[in-house]
Amino acid sequence: MAENNEFIREVNEDYRRDQVAEIWRRYSGVIIAIAVLVVAAVGGWRYWQADQKSRAETASESFDSANKLARDGKADEADKAFLEIEKQGPAGYALLARFRSATEAAKRNPAAGAAEYEALGADPKLSNGLRDLARLRAALLRMDLPNPDPALAVLQGLAAPTGAFRHTAREMLGLAALKRGDYDGAGRWFDQLSADPQTPQNLRQRIEVYTALVAGGPVTVTEPVAQPAAPPPATR
Q: Is residue 168 assigned to a domain?
């Protein structure tokens, strides 16, 4: 029995060797090509990772340098540095540079800064959250410009119940209504903030002040009643 088992094992091993030899004869070229492709893919992946790391480190240094130029008041040089990062840097740093450039532009010219933020808000390559952030910043800048109506329209869109920036948008809309003397409109926006369970606590504290202003209504200034002039002293 043991001899039979040994014989069967040897036959099986010979059969497997023949199969492997036949597979190698028929498909050796394919196997070698696949092996080469795997090695090339792994090498290419590692090269790409190293290149991305190097580019990110370079962009980080460039971004820090551009920020320092902006802090030092060298606006033109900072603008050029941010623009270079937008063109040459990795996607993340290019986006940061665009937002930072808009911030610096707004310090010098609010309308120009708002325009840059609006370009970011209209960029379909950005996520909805980043686009909404850019729209919010543009609207806040345009609130103080001669015609705030477009900004108010943007804020109303951002004030939707599911908006990520609805709390800031509602607060700004309420304050704008308060400034115009529209106490009913202001109260509605502040009421929405009060009813929202996700309204931040520090904003709730401000709402108490706003609500008190709304409850007080417009302040009527009355002219003081003129008092009759005193008669001149009698002369002798």
A: yes
